[in-house]
Amino acid sequence: MPTEISGSTGVNKIQDGTVVNADINSSAAIAGSKISGSFGKILQVVGMNSTTEVTVSASSATDTGFTANITPSATSSKIVVFFETNVANNNPSSYNRVQLKKVVGGSTTQLAEKHCEREAYYDYQMCTINYLDTPNTTSQITYKITAYRQGGGQGHLGINGTSTSLLLFEVGA
Q: Does this model's pTM top 0.90?
């Protein structure tokens, strides 16, 4: 049964109307709705999911069509990027190079590149890129995936209709 605090039993513990860390038991649970401020909160989530297979054969980066746009609500926000797809190839001595790029105001910056390889013909392998970006802007940002083959042959992203996803999380500072 909860203890009721009245004017004569313990109200002196919080006389000023505020609760400080010392007033809270270490096992207490506090609802997220009671916490104010913009520290580490997920402010928005956007992304794309596709079952389209993309063939990669060029030795220079080709746009895969896997893109997502986000407009940060504050310049102090960070963007967490998660990309995943299944890859395969028809030449076990070559591999897919998958790149994460961002476009802001027409200017493109490469953020990450991943070597995604499969040693057997058309054997699937998960390829992921996880990236924490500090864009320092409130302009729209396009995050996109490009890919190319190194060593010849053809590669495939999203092989045989498997799911490819690109998710963006805005995190408040």
A: no
